[in-house]
Design a protein that fits this description.
Number of helices of chain B: 13
Largest sheet of chain A: none
Number of helices of chain A: 15
Shape of chain A: globular
Number of domains of chain A: 1
Number of strands of chain A: 0
Largest interface: A-B, 116 and 113 residues
Distance between the termini of chain A: 32 Å
CATH topology of chain A: MetI-like fold
Shape of chain B: globular
Oligomer: heterodimer
CATH superfamily of chain A: MetI-like
CATH architecture of one domain in chain B: Orthogonal Bundle
Radius of gyration of chain B: 25 Å
Strand order of the largest sheet of chain B: 1-2
Structural class of chain B: mainly alpha
Order of helices and strands of chain B: HHEEHHHHHHHHHHH
Strand content of chain B: under 5%
Largest sheet of chain B: 2 strands, antiparallel
Radius of gyration of chain A: 24 Å
Distance between the termini of chain B: 32 Å
CATH superfamily of one domain in chain B: MetI-like
CATH class of one domain in chain B: Mainly Alpha
Strand content of chain A: under 5%
Order of helices and strands of chain A: HHHHHHHHHHHHHHH
Chain lengths: 299, 303
């Protein structure tokens, strides 16, 4: 097929500059975009309202006054600044937990794809089986184990379980098999480079896109984790944003029997909780697709 | 294989140096997965021993916890709840995801990348925040639902026993349509150009291309999406947990199996029974995931 014919045939089905782009189809599909963005728009609008405006104005309309900055100040002042503490805790769990999870998954996945060692097949089978085990099924027994060794209600109780991501491990295994040529490793070995040295000097740069993908999944999973901290932590000062936010909700609901007098703090806190993730998400979005492609197509 | 390649492969002999890399992961994997799994199995064979209301440690009861579980209506009501959820919410969600993936891939949308990013965005939102937002929207007194009811003269209450599962289904759908869409979309992106060219030469129309090329290409990722959805649904906890106080008494302490396990371990102080429940749910999940895999594999052979 000639180049021109190739382009022509491609154009008929797939060229993004295809003149057959349909306004009607776009609008129909746009319903789902609306659905996806609507609650977030609602959250952003209502985080700018005072408590009074919240109950007296329509959900998708702005209130009489723009109270966003006042709400943010109130959120950080709530109970002697506990929200700021929760934010720092979340950052701690993300940096140590998700960071550690990425490191372990990268090293492990790389080792599995580039070395043949005794027990390798068994390890693969067990970890793949673990993907199907509901992690919450293990959280209660883990809590009981942790309480025996006195780890419960400390940051470690959240960090240690966050360190393992079977899916990330699997992604890294698939990714290293493709991204790092065996010939390159052999050449480095012949030059007298040690295994760890070879990994850091040669393999790590090649693995960078895969590492970003695994890190993204680990960061979102850790930032958003709810069940684990709910079970492991009782002290307010170690909670992350997710269980903290739910605590504000619990207190106001039990106090007011349905109507929440701390509405503005819950909504503003929610908005502040998701903004860092949305920013990271938008800037790094191409890595998501790369990861899901590697994970779902290469089975 | 060339001779040189053979020598290279031969040189990559079995030795223990791979454990330098796999060791740290394996160590924590044992702590976080294997140890609690083994401990849960161990626990499930015991029962707290109470004498005159005072705990006297644990006694071995064999399979009694499992026998009790199979006759426990609270457990089965939770299982029925998530099974119904699996049968209704998951197909709807995956159908929307597939439609969106095909639509975005079709090249017929204006601003397709905007579509892709905005539909995927909810995946980055914590379940707690997603549920709080939707919970406030559902509110029959101050929420947007109240405005809808006022406008229509209706009295829809999502927090009623009839609609609570619909409300939760909507939240889960909202959270995951983009994630599943991206799984399908990534699979569509791996279709080689030559297939499309061949289809054009054969005179296939757009529907023909979808049926003959795109849907078979999605098949593998569909299986993955179904398995992930099965695992997620059987674990359902966060959304009903956050909604619980907002919705009055509609959400019981045994609303889903996971809810019941939580209640048993922390409120009823019976971690042994809770462990038995967790193991049975883990087994059910693995069996369903395995059946899905068999069914997917069988379909692929028939193709």
């Amino acid at each position: 097929m000639t180049k021109a014919a190739h382009l022509r045939s491609r154009a008929r089905l797939h060229n993004p500059k295809n003149p057959r782009r349909s306004v009607l189809f776009t609008v129909l599909t746009g319903v789902f975009v609306l659905y996806s963005l609507m609650p977030l728009v609602w959250l952003a609008i209502n985080a700018t309202k005072t408590q009074h405006d919240y109950v007296s104005t329509f959900g998708f309309a702005f209130g009489g006054s723009f109270a966003l900055f006042d709400n943010i100040a109130q959120t950080f002042a709530y109970r002697d600044g506990i929200f700021g503490r929760w934010l720092l805790n979340t950052l701690l769990y993300v940096v140590v937990g998700a960071g550690g999870a990425t490191l372990l998954a990268v090293l492990g996945g790389y080792g599995l794809s580039k070395y043949r060692f005794p027990g390798r097949r068994g390890l693969i089978a067990v970890v793949m089986g673990a993907i199907a085990v509901p992690s919450t099924a293990l959280t209660v027994p883990l809590f009981l184990l942790f309480s025996r060794v006195g780890v419960v209600d400390t940051p470690w109780a959240v960090i240690i379980p966050s360190l393992i991501t079977p899916f990330g491990f699997y992604l890294m295994q698939v990714f290293s098999a493709e991204a790092v040529p065996d010939e390159m490793l052999e050449a480095a070995r012949l030059d007298g480079s040690g295994e760890l040295g070879t990994f850091f000097r040669i393999s790590l740069p090649l693995l960078a896109p895969g590492i970003v993908t695994v890190a993204l999944f680990a960061i979102v999973a850790t930032w958003n984790n709810y069940f684990l901290p709910l079970i492991m932590l009782t002290s307010e000062e170690w909670k992350p944003l997710t269980t903290g936010l739910n605590d504000i909700k619990l207190q106001t609901y039990s106090a007011a029997g349905g109507q929440s007098p701390l509405q503005n703090i819950i909504l503003t806190g929610s908005l502040l909780t998701i903004i860092p993730l949305i920013i990271a998400f938008l800037f790094l979005q191409r890595f998501w697709q790369a990861g899901l492609a590697a994970g779902s197509v290469k089975e | 294989m060339t001779a040189a390649a053979k020598i290279r492969t031969g040189q990559r002999r079995r030795n223990w140096s791979g454990w330098v890399f796999a060791g740290p992961f394996s160590f924590f994997f044992i702590i976080v997965f294997i140890a609690p799994l083994a401990y849960a199995i161990w626990l499930s064979f015991f029962q707290p021993k109470m004498v005159w209301g005072v705990s006297q440690g644990e006694e071995f009861v064999g399979l009694a916890n499992y026998v009790r579980l199979f006759g426990d209506p609270n457990f089965w009501s939770g299982v029925a709840g998530v099974a119904l959820f699996l049968a209704v919410q998951v197909p709807i969600m995956l159908a929307i995801s597939m439609f969106l993936a095909l639509a975005i891939d079709s090249g017929r949308l204006w601003g397709a990348s905007f579509f892709r990013v905005s539909v995927f965005l909810p995946y980055a939102i914590p379940a707690v925040v997603a549920t709080l937002m939707w919970g406030f929207l559902y509110g029959a007194r101050y929420g947007v639902m109240a405005s809808v009811n006022n406008a229509l003269g209706s009295s829809i209450d999502v927090f009623s026993a009839d609609l609570i599962w619909v409300g939760i289904g909507n939240i889960v759908t909202w959270e995951y349509i983009g994630y599943n869409m991206l799984i399908f979309y990534s699979a569509l992106k791996t279709i080689p150009e030559s297939l499309y060219e061949a289809a054009v030469i054969d005179g296939a129309g757009e529907w023909g291309v979808i049926k003959a090329i795109k849907l078979p290409a999605i098949r593998g990722s569909m299986m993955i999406a179904v398995i992930f959805s099965v695992i997620g649904t059987f674990q359902l906890f966060n959304e009903p947990n956050v909604l619980q106080q907002m919705s009055g008494n509609v959400i019981t302490t045994y609303f889903t199996p996971n809810f019941y396990a939580f209640q048993l371990a922390f409120n009823a102080h019976n971690p042994n029974y809770s462990a038995a429940l967790a193991i049975v749910m883990g087994l059910i999940t693995m069996i369903v995931a395995y059946v899905v895999q068999l069914w997917g594999g069988k379909g692929a052979e028939q193709k």
